Amino acid sequence: MKSTSVRRRLAGAAATALMAGAGVLAAAPMAAAKANLLTIDKVSFHKPDVQVKVTYSCDPGMDRELVANARTLGTGSNREGNAAGTIKKDKLVCDAGDHTAQVTMRPAQGSYFLKGDKVKVSVFYFDNDGFSYAREATVVVL
Hints:
By secondary structure, the chain is α+β, with helices and mostly antiparallel strands.
């Protein structure tokens, strides 16, 4: 009988330890898990440029730029608008918090946008090795 009660106590202690450990994980700050995220807040047209307001978070010491691209969709003509803009890594605030930035995308030579154009805007991080991370995109009408 003694061994049964000892087993029950050990099982209870193990269950308590598991629950306590799960509680610690559940209460851990989410900052570490949310780094390197991007959210497109607003896209606007400031002729000839397209601007995107982005909420971002990034890890301290991150070696990446924030890049934004815009491209027209289905203009019904041969005209195509393409634009790009970047925020260099030294201009990004990388810590546990969320920050906002506005990226101005300048049209490529010979490319332009018109009010009413349907445009796909994408934002992402780009590193020195050519990899992109945390890509987000939206489609808007200028």
